[in-house]
Design goal:
about 20% strand; alpha/beta; 4-stranded antiparallel β-sheet
């Protein structure tokens, strides 16, 4: 399945012409120029679970091109999102800061302008900055275009009538940026693909590629109003009630976007053999495919189906390898800037992953943390995960043995009292730190406008993706 020739090329050319610290967040100190001059490419694939890719052991051939690129990359086997929902996740990723530093909250669900971003730091370092994105949760009205010379929002283009039309346009935009980059001026390119976000509607031939015996097995699911207990009525396909069918379609969407991302990655390799380009491929969050009775959505809980993501890093000096180090979306900004040797603020919540995969001395990290839109909080290390769920004015605690119970199905808090106390102490200390940070950050947020109401094509796309009930 190839893009639609000269028509899409002309279209994209037209589109590209649109135009633990407590101090408050500060802007990055501008660099006069990049220390390496390396190009920087960030590819984010919405709603992509790590365990549905070949490089992470999946049984289906969903990702042959990403798997091939993985042989040139450092592959992080323990990568997780900090926040399993696109809008907040991308704010954490693009700033390298947690909410108590970047000001994200229910009242300000936007990327506030006092934050330095990956694009603004690189632009100050002399980079040209370009983005092609498809998910209205990263709309320019919400602050995500900060630092970009060109910010193409695919949902705003009426001529791109389907998700795959938008996917093709993102790919063509990325290819044009790579191939037409002027000599001597490094570029930063961000591509955000919305596939495989629900509804799962892969194009031919991927709509039937994975309709094997397993896709027809098992009992029928109910059709329900929400995402718990069965198939959301808005996602239900007539005559299709098997869980396996929807998983097969999810996998088909992965295969479709894998083909497109693969074209971009091949162009990067052909352009400079990865000698002058740094690449990160990752996702904003995963997807629950029936685990914990939660179907075809993400973000309501803090279990691994929504938290665990793929992460690949290719850069000069990074040899192909597997890394067991904990990696977070908070680490993307410092890692890319470290590889480009562009200075960045010292008060980041994330850390560079580069030393651990390039022969340097990596600082050991034993645990990660996570939050979500429903005020759930979690911490986890290699052995246990603790999840705090607010119930009234108290928390309900779930402790899960990650080694013996990878599905996180059994709450072992009653049996593991010592472990519970230790994990709770770590979680409490982390949020005490955040409370202290909020004291300073709220002063920066004060007076800033909250979330604008998105209308028109942006709202319609959010409705189609299940984020809002209606537009008007």
């Amino acid at each position: 399945m190839r893009p639609r020739g000269a028509l899409l090329v002309a279209l994209v050319v037209a589109l590209g012409c649109q135009p633990r610290t407590t101090p408050p967040p500060v802007s990055a100190r501008p660099s006069p120029a990049s220390g390496t001059g390396y190009n920087v490419v960030l590819i984010t694939i919405d709603t992509l679970r790590a365990d549905h890719l070949g490089m992470y052991g999946y049984r289906r051939a969903t990702s042959p091109r990403l798997d091939a690129f993985a042989t040139r990359s450092a592959v992080f086997d323990a990568a997780y999102t900090y926040w399993p929902k696109t809008r907040a996740s991308m704010i954490m990723l693009l700033t390298g800061r947690r909410p108590s530093q970047n000001g994200y909250s229910k009242t300000h669900a936007v990327l506030l302008d006092f934050n330095a971003t990956l694009a603004s730091v690189l632009k100050a370092a002399g980079y040209s900055t370009t983005a092609y994105v498809d998910n209205a949760n990263v709309a320019s009205e919400l602050g995500y275009a900060k630092g970009f010379d060109t910010y193409m929002e695919a949902w705003q283009r009426p001529e791109l009538k389907s998700e795959m039309d938008r996917t093709f346009a993102i790919t063509e935009g990325g290819l044009a940026t790579i191939r037409n980059a002027p000599p001597g001026k490094p570029y930063f390119l961000w591509l955000h693909y919305v596939n495989p976000h629900a509804p799962y509607t892969p194009p031919a031939p991927y709509d039937t590629t994975f309709l094997d015996e397993s896709s027809r097995a098992g009992g029928d699911l109910r059709v329900v109003k929400g995402y718990k207990g069965g198939i959301h009525a808005e996602l239900a396909v007539s005559g299709q009630r098997k869980l396996g069918y929807y998983v097969a379609q999810y996998d088909g969407e992965i295969a479709a976007v894998d083909e497109q991302v693969g074209r971009v990655l091949e162009a990067i390799v052909e352009n400079d053999g990865l000698l002058r380009t740094v690449v990160v491929v990752t996702s904003d969050h995963g997807e629950s495919l029936g685990e914990h009775d939660y179907y075809f959505d993400h973000g309501e809980n803090l279990f691994d189906p929504s938290l665990r993501i793929p992460m690949l890093l290719a850069a000069p000096g990074v040899k192909p390898q597997r890394s067991a180090a904990f990696a977070s979306t908070l680490d993307v900004l410092p890692t890319l800037l470290d590889a480009a040797k562009v200075s960045y603020p010292p008060d980041l919540a994330g850390r560079s992953l580069l030393p651990g995969v390039s022969g340097g001395k990596a600082q050991a990290r034993e645990r990660l943390f996570a939050q979500n839109d429903y005020n759930l909080r979690a911490t986890f290390d290699a052995s246990y995960k603790l999840v705090a769920t607010p119930v009234g004015d108290k928390d309900q605690w779930g402790l899960y043995d990650r080694a013996r119970d990878p599905g996180e199905a059994r709450n072992v808090r009653p049996q593991r009292t010592d472990e519970f106390r230790e994990q709770r102490r770590e979680l409490d200390l982390y949020f005490e730190l955040m409370d202290k940070e909020w004291v300073a950050t709220r002063k920066l947020v004060e007076g800033k406008p909250g979330e604008p109401k998105l209308t028109g094509p942006a709202c319609e796309q959010l409705r189609a993706l299940g984020y809002v009930a209606n537009c008007g």
